[in-house]
Amino acid sequence: MALNDFGKIVQKWWDEIPNHFPNVETGAFVIMPNHVHGIIIIIDDHRGTVSVPRNDPNSNHLKTPQPDLSQDRGGETPPLRKRTLGQIVAYFKYQSTKELNALDNSGVITKFWQRNYYEHIIRNEREMDNIWRYIEANPAQWDADDENPSNNRG
Prior knowledge:
three-stranded antiparallel β-sheet
């Protein structure tokens, strides 16, 4: 895939994620003509493991422990809370959309991203390797991809 100006902006903001979120690393990433694939790795410094905090308050799945602020008397800034995957994706979408819209001087705000996103928790190294290879191979599979508009399978 050869990136146009829009693709370069999307790549730029993907690359900015670890700079904005100190406990986050990015893995394999590819920009397709109408979607992206990427791996976001959230480092849990308290347990030395990798986890993906969920936004769902009713889910106990890989919940991130929250600091006890009941003794906070002011004067000191409490430790930063770990960011959720939703916050990270929202930052990426917001920043890239803002710059993409600035590229067009018409003043019309264009929505570039769908509202939701697909997430999958990677549970082991074998799964990480498989998904990493899938992402890297995705551009070569574009001609047969269901997301390719020229494959009108309706």
